[in-house]
Protein 1
Amino acid sequence: MGFMGAISKDGLNIANKSREIVKNKIKDVLGGKINDFNEEEMGIIERVVHATADPEYAKLLVFKNNPIVEGIKAIKEKKPIIVDVNMIKAGIRYDNVKCFIDHPDVFEIAKKEGITRAVASMRLAKDLIDDGIVVIGNAPTALFEVIRLIKEEDIYPRLVIGVPVGFVQATESKEELRKLNISNISTVGPKGGTPVAVSIINGIIAYAKKGKA
Amino acid sequence: MGFMGAISKDGLNIANKSREIVKNKIKDVLGGKINDFNEEEMGIIERVVHATADPEYAKLLVFKNNPIVEGIKAIKEKKPIIVDVNMIKAGIRYDNVKCFIDHPDVFEIAKKEGITRAVASMRLAKDLIDDGIVVIGNAPTALFEVIRLIKEEDIYPRLVIGVPVGFVQATESKEELRKLNISNISTVGPKGGTPVAVSIINGIIAYAKKGKA
């Protein structure tokens, strides 16, 4: 399969043409700052702009503490990926992806403790998050809970991709994530979402399969 | 469950605060044009801006041929929803959603005929698309195939939500969709994607459950 899962000639032509346009849009947005990113980071930025048709993401993505190399290592070790919503699970090309948002215990915990289902789902996944990969593309509260687990309960994920979307708490949750000493990829401001999350983690999985890092 | 599936007090507070901000952002973007939309359309616009944190969508969404009323009717009749990618299927709160992109026949047809998997998946779904609802959030070629089925093969979907994303063919495919005499919802330009598609169709499903129209 070619870029973005294309198998037909039409599919490949579209993917190649799109890639060309995406590269140029990123150049326009980043200007001289394009040299701030290494080749692997640029590959991830391209995927996100491709998935959203929104070149602004080139300015919004932040890579902290060597996240791509750490992510590739964790994928090669077949570590689990814990996600906040099923849409992300459906988009990731990897066998070991876990989402607890619809787990019966999550409904119970959320109601009883007055927390969001997203928070409850991360709390339930605690043992998998330790030494695993976390991908959050929807709920800021889920990201805050992961940050709390790291700070208060000595949970140490190998990589956190934190790109929750929205005007309430999303910006703040990602700022807190970037202060941590763990490997993370995030966006600045309210933008983010499931296609952003999925394109980042699928990019890292693709690198791992190609034997990068 | 409250707005956006919130069940906890925290979840409801976030959802309500977010809704407030979203409404204001939409007002800023639309100005006087806010009166161009009816209450149900505004509800859909709010969901899309909520899902993307991108208020520009208020200017990009187009409703043609009474799509919300037609969509609600089709949902109440339990018509199937045919989608282009599994991420959309995972996000829709409805029992009868079909996605053929990973169907073995689709790989065969795509390779043999030199078409994209997305096109092959729509061709395979032809009989379900007739009198059903189509939701396309990723592949412009899938939307072009649906348009071809409508024009050349007398297939008549009740509603087409066409919001494929990308810099190649997405804009053009949506322009062609808007020329048709069927009920449709689309975006102007390259932007769109799975969260846009999912929030539109889930909004219509929510209306149908509340007994609107």
Protein 2
Amino acid sequence: MSAAKPQNHSQKLAEVRHHILDLLLNNDDLADSILGEKTADPRNTLLMDQTADLSASVATLHAADLADILEALPEHQRLALWSLVEPSVRGKALVEVSETVWDSLIEEMSDRDLLRAIAYLDLDDQVYLAEYLPRDLTGRVLTSLEPRLRDKVREVMKFGKSSVGRIMDFELLTIRPDVTLAAVQRYLRFRKIIPKGSDKLFVTDRNNLLLGELPLTTVLLNAPLQRVEEVMNDDPTTFSPDDKADDAASAFERYDLITAPVVDLKGKLMGRLTVESIVDFVNEDSDANLRRMGGISPEEDVFSPVGKAVKNRWAWLAINLCTAFVASRVIGLFEHTISELVALAALMPIVAGIGGNTGNQTITMIVRGLALHQVQLSNMPFLLLRELGVALINGLIWGGLMGVVTWLLYGNMAMGAVMTLAMVLNLLVAALMGVLIPLTMVRLGRDPALGSSVMITALTDTGGFFIFLGLATIFLL
Amino acid sequence: MSAAKPQNHSQKLAEVRHHILDLLLNNDDLADSILGEKTADPRNTLLMDQTADLSASVATLHAADLADILEALPEHQRLALWSLVEPSVRGKALVEVSETVWDSLIEEMSDRDLLRAIAYLDLDDQVYLAEYLPRDLTGRVLTSLEPRLRDKVREVMKFGKSSVGRIMDFELLTIRPDVTLAAVQRYLRFRKIIPKGSDKLFVTDRNNLLLGELPLTTVLLNAPLQRVEEVMNDDPTTFSPDDKADDAASAFERYDLITAPVVDLKGKLMGRLTVESIVDFVNEDSDANLRRMGGISPEEDVFSPVGKAVKNRWAWLAINLCTAFVASRVIGLFEHTISELVALAALMPIVAGIGGNTGNQTITMIVRGLALHQVQLSNMPFLLLRELGVALINGLIWGGLMGVVTWLLYGNMAMGAVMTLAMVLNLLVAALMGVLIPLTMVRLGRDPALGSSVMITALTDTGGFFIFLGLATIFLL
């Protein structure tokens, strides 16, 4: 028995990662030689040693860490490293790696290799890969399963994406309510295995109806002769497969759950949720949100080829260009005004910019409030008044300041007054739209975080130019 | 024994939430009467009934759900609801509620009430509240603890915010390596309690040196006569209190951990991390990030009073105003050019806008790549070339399109050419800065997500105006 070394986990990992990247990126021949593109000179022992070194390093890695390193490599080196990964680890690595990298990894794998890699996985991971991998392997994975599992998988695939049904697993250990804890322990020792991540057993009747749950700690803490039904929790927090995974995640956080049963409408046990699958879901979800807010499709990573990246960002740039063009046409309406008073051209971006900023602040607050269920129909009037109040005060303060600066800069007091008035009005528009846009999106059943920011910026730009130049046309010419 | 009802958790919760909000928001008298501001007419049985109804609803809620509802209420109603919360639940609710709501909740509580509420909590929650609550209660909470705990707390408070030391707890159950599993079970039954969220026991020697960990499932699956050291995991994933909580979170996700030991440099067991505290940390962290990206301070919520919200958003608006002012002065440099060719005023926001958009896309990719350790010094040249390539292609396509549109719109081919050239150049600036800004921030030891977006927008605005108007001055006058 050796004492556990006090090793810092993240330091150790960083070292291995650095070592692997170093070997592959600073030596072009190494990747070539691994991929057999250059017939390695057998006397070139350095390359052989480095390959062996690389294989050994890869073997020490957890699949998730390996996936990270694969993502961090350009395509050629990525393939070289992949060819050193054991078949038994490949499936798990494919599950962990981001979808953007799949293409290149499975390109050189035959369908048979791929099916073999998948066969090492748990059922839920098999379904995930079979369904989302670029090649349509669903049918073939299904036929490789035994009939009972096949039916189960078919059933699961009916549930909507981001539903509890999609992230539950089937590694259930059920017991009957009328046995003793001693019998439970005998049964466990006989089975020799408890599903990974279990903190409880599920208590069901003959018809698979969920009666309660029995935490493992309850088994350990109570007298062996007690019966399960005497000590089980008979009011567990359950989920239905149609529940949103989001809501399940928030329940796991609130109630500090580690596993929870999933039951159908009749109360029959269908599967279980684990905190691991919840954490994975939350991470993927927040990653996807971050990308969408920046207008980047989930298929792009930092190593996507240029052509793919260009295609991915087109839609967003096109939208942006359209809104900018509309704003430009609004300015075009006032060319006469600008030609009379060129200073307006320099001042107008200030009005537009500050409006966009305020609008985005408001939207951030509202989207967050919606996500936390703090914003409801009943408190909307209060919210709207609050945001308008904030906008009015900010408009008077900052608009007033810019008005004075304008007056001093151009010696034109009327122009300063127009500046102040335009800023106040545009901030009010920004606040109003900042509340209304996300709420309208929710009403229409859409995600309020997606696209709200583009819309508000378009409105405050166009609105800002129109208000400022319109007021200038009325009062300054 | 009753069968567990197949009740959908989130539906049930939504009903209770809706009921409470409904009662409080649609009836001004109710909050007044609860707070004793109007002497309730004893014959007004409706108000009495509603208050009783409210109390009953509150009593069914988990502290986290209660916190949510408190946050969703305007101040007056929030206080009314708070006065119905049991002292034993108040501490937990304070932990769960966002910091923005603390002020109003503890206003009407005396220090003694507050200390009593805190006393119901676990040690780590006590430290959290004592340290962050508006009133400085750290000293008083410390003196209310027994000396052994007091020293421990003092030690913990030395670790940096967002470190493992800050989110670990001390509910450790340790056992010796040389006892049998049967003895472990006897010991557990004798103690009658296992720390919440435990999936394992920690094996230590007489000097508290960590020797390994013993999963509860191992205790259940193995023969009672086996000794701990024969079946324990002697190479556990450990953390040190100085590790970043972020890194620990990613290790928990990767390795599907539920609890993990925290050891000091000598390998002595100090505390443990639980997946609950990790999930809480991740949620708070991502919430804070979301707000910072929108320029909203963590102290603001949707119900902060107007004055507070104005103050919170000042800094951000001031920065925005400064950058807009600089851009405005750049335009001011070219007033002569604009007065000769007013169309330029209408076209320039397009060049600036599209640059900001591209720059933000690039930054989103790089920040994400940095967070996932995919972006390293060694692959930076590749990344920079890639982003410049994407920018060049997008610039030629969209810039070309806008050039043609400009030509057709104003019948001026040279102006169209200037438009195309300016857009290509500004997109290249955006890509270059989009890579360099976040990498520089990391080099300076700062968070690359924070402020990068403001900087890139300022640069592409100013740059866009300068490039476009500069080229126009050279080629069009």
